[in-house]
């Protein structure tokens, strides 16, 4: 086991990082570690740092729809607190424990570090869109704040978004502040069966191009279950959801007979979509996550399937594709990235053996000019390369 | 009069003016190079007219490649560049300096692609905000951010200032509706960030670029998310006998879990000004007015409005009037969106842009009127109440130097107050030159130094929109 | 906006008026978005805000106009779209008129430009000279391409080109007025100078319409040009003389028989007549009389709209694209009346996309700035053709001519259509078009 800093507050966090920077000793930074197996492997480092002892909700104003928390706060604690006021984190963060088979409760800091979102991302934005303020400690040990607790803020550079999804490579978060939303009064799903990928995406596109409060849209092809399921979720007031479901059934008439899915059945279905449940087993498969324009998704998939045996499904109306491939050769990297190269978008190798993640690019390779900027930014936050050095890209 | 300082122009650059202009003629189409004093004068200020500086020259490129050539040249020869969209900044974000070339994007105004299946539109940065919605409206789509200057302001400027608008309460601001950009860095390299898909690869540089006020690079193309319009939308006017009542009603609506599309606030002074221009039927016998817009099917709007009306009545609303026609709706919004300009009919003004927590609205409103009174001036308030983004218009006489400095002092006091109660200096107008020296109220040195370092990662020679955003004495510490 | 005029400068009534206008401008930039030249050229100096700023500097510094300033002011169409847009109520028309007068006083134009402008000012307002000029233009047609290569020749060529689109209109002599038995009202109908020559059928239709509704129409024999043409060319004193002359003529009519309105069928003229009160505000002898004349001025569609209107007698239902002249919608803020008249007569009226943008006619603009005018015409015609009309209707002869030169769809004056619907003759250009 490596030695581990476990600061209890921002001050301790800062001094730990300063120590490491002085000693030029790289740190593996994590929250509870539910996603430690994501990104490029950092196996060789002697020291780690966890924020799991920095816990607690630092600010909650239900009437202003704002919540702030220390990074080690479990997401479940935040959810519970919000639920008391019938509110929620809008972006429906995925729980990676399902894919990684880990048990430690995901922390809010980890969610922000990975810009982790779920199916509702298409309607209300990603984690980075709800995040309105951060405090963080840079690789120099400096405490820096950006953003704040108000919804609109263009004062100075947006270091909030820069650090959301930076996987702890620039700074270690010491507080995160979100805008939250009231929970919808009602949520239900409308589904269609028996469709191939192309028609399914067309049906989802029609739904997302409507004005009926669609908050999620996914397609689970027949290869996953016994029959294919194409579903959208409607959320809002009782009236608007009922109305939307009726209208959507009409809109979908040419695709087939729409079926209503309500209550727990609907909720469970979306949990599975959120956590990529169907691809979790067998554990030895590599898992890719592709973000691309929905209309291109069926072609890209067809292209990939010609060359590679995959299990897959679509979220975000087709804009997000989850793929499971055999963890051999390059785990399909060349096929996937070539298929994506012509269409635009990016592919992330979410789950793979450490050896595989060491050998191939986990995150989408960057064009030279963007890579250079990324290196410069890393340098200005973490000149001694102590924070998760190399987790996203080699040298960063 | 002028409180805001400018740096001394670089004499060496001024001395090289002729040769710089000569070089620029080889880089851009002649119709896009402006050098005569009279013609450059049109570019010496933006909508913060109290401050003016004649630029060295103005270039209006037509392509990303021309932008790249100009930036590379300026980078190699150490010439400053001030980017400009429509020049509608209220914070002086587009005001040049004498040793800088203004690079205007107005000639880059083409729509490049519209894709309804993937719900995006790709445009050049000089396209105006409203014309984006105009393009997709025939198919029932819209682009959500709607700053009040949307008729004139450009998408490039919106990105630079992370523009919001009345309807961002529900739909978010520019950063939440932008999928990708093509931008030119100061060394002339052209990069694409994001694209026609969600969540760009690598670090969120797209998120960083939004709101960076033209200091990281010049955006030449943008891919914007478009949304299907709701089935119907209906603004309702709620008149209150007191500002406190209106402020409380806003907080209560949000607290009740209702997120209307927009909640706009006007005080008596603003109501009178806007009604005179737009004849929108605003009630003139109230102290404060809320314009609340809801959308959806008729039944949904009726239900939501019933809830909001109950809250408004409980807070003492005396007037409740729904728009009954598209013409009425248009007039209601025209009045609101023209508020700043219409104020020009009665006085000069400085427009503040601080944002405060919605729970603090009533308190801050009361304090603002005290502050402005203390400086012997008047104020009109018209702003986005739902997200706490305040726009006090400090009324004064620009031809009276003592009033100018009083107005600026009052503005500073108001912004300090916004920060004190947990808010920020600017919600959507940007820091520009106007709030540059107040940055230290909101940020510690460590915060600012880190921002400056990031800025320097993009523009190490500090050539892009140099005198903006950061206190002048600060950059050396970066 | 802050201004910086010396006290001596402000002693001048024109300057002090302009200073008031400039003070209202907050430089918000809204006007740039609806300015035709900014849409085409995208240079702020070719936008209202830029021009206002250049004018401000020129007037503040009391300096002579420079060629650059003149170029950008000359490119202004005076369409006044900016005034419709402006939330601050900046009276751009009065400001630019002042600037044009200042230019005329302080700037010597190159010779070809001077000759051309002089010729336009000496010919267009005078029907006899205009008829002669048109004959010259017809015989010069073969050499227009050659002319275009001379200094200032592009403008001459444009003039000849335009004149050819007049050929389908019958030149006639000025009309007598028309009396009716037991009139319910009495109006003066502006003959219009170019319109007498190029579009007499318009006023014929107007007279039929008015008399059909019991309105007596007078057309004073000594009425002159309204002054708009010389005003926009910067000949301020000639414009004022024209205004004074007409004020006298109509005042005489008011005193001998009374006038309920001064009815105008060319909106470009209507805008200026409605402004006589302002133009002559500093002339003690005329200020009051002029204000009375301005108050009586009505566009024909405004006037008809207020009458208890008879029903149409023909089978209508044709699709009409209504093109609102800038002087109509921006100058006079008359928007709905013409469309509502046409709809009342049973026409299917379609709104033209980008309807607020000028067609490029703008008085003498299509002669003086042919390149921009042609681009605007092409844009206008494209927009009109999008709505697939059978007929284009407009309330201004200049637009009718300008648009007519760019499309095969017939263009008529609104009153010609209304008159036909009520039983008047079919306008010439519609012969064979109304299947």
How would you characterize this protein structure?
The complex is a heterotrimer of chains A (396), B (478) and C (435). Chain A has 396 residues and is α+β, with helices and mostly antiparallel strands. Chain A has helices at 10-22, 75-84, 97-100, 108-113, 121-124, 127-130, 159-163, 197-208, 238-251, 263-274, 297-307, 333-341, 354-359, 368-381, and strands spanning 3-5, 27-30, 47-50, 57-61, 66-69, 87-88, 131-138, 143-147, 171-179, 181-182, 186-193, 214-220, 229-236, 259-261, 285-291, 310-315, 320-326, 346-351. Chain A contains 14 helices and 18 strands. Chain B is built from 17 helices and 18 strands. Chain B starts with 10 loop residues before the first helix and ends in a 20-residue tail after the last helix. The mean pLDDT of chain B is 94. By secondary structure, chain C is an alpha/beta fold. Among the domains of chain C are: 7-106, Fumarate Reductase Iron-sulfur Protein, Chain B, domain 2 (Orthogonal Bundle); 319-430, 3-Layer(aba) Sandwich (Rossmann fold). Chain C is globular, with a radius of gyration of 21 Å. The termini of chain C are far apart. The interface between A and B is large, with 82 and 93 residues. Chain A: This is Glycolate oxidase subunit GlcE. Chain A: Keywords: FAD, Flavoprotein, Oxidoreductase. Chain A: Residues 1-183 form the FAD-binding PCMH-type domain. Chain A: Its EC number is 1.1.99.14.
